[in-house]
Amino acid sequence: MQELEPIFCIAGIWRSHPQLGEAFTMLTMPPVPDIAPYHDRQIAVIERTDWADWLDPGIPASDQLKTLPAGRLSVAQVG
């Protein structure tokens, strides 16, 4: 199994509008097996190897949004 990353990036969209101000949203997608028992969707995670590509406007976002394999997200109860 691949070692879990201590940090990750969330796919999001940001824009600035002269009349409305700034807006940001996090993208979601169907849950991976690690998340599915707890929720019907999850944040879109960008793999470390794809961080620079996600920020490159010349690369389509659809090429970056991938489903993570099982075991890549650690789920823990807090609180």
Please give a structural write-up.
This protein has 79 residues and is mainly beta. 6% of the residues lie in helices and 25% in strands. The protein contains one helix and six strands. It has one helix spanning 51-55; strands spanning 9-10, 12-17, 21-26, 28-29, 42-43, 45-46. A two-stranded antiparallel ribbon has the order 1-6. The protein has a two-stranded antiparallel ribbon with strand order 2-3. A two-stranded antiparallel ribbon has the order 4-5. A hairpin with a 3-residue loop joins β2 (12-17) and β3 (21-26). The longest helix has 5 residues, at 51-55. It is globular, with a radius of gyration of 15 Å. The two termini are 28 Å apart. The model has no long low-confidence stretch (mean pLDDT 86).
What is the element layout, followed by pairings?
Elements: E1 9-10, E2 12-17, E3 21-26, E4 28-29, E5 42-43, E6 45-46, H1 51-55
Antiparallel strand pairs: 1-6, 2-3, 4-5
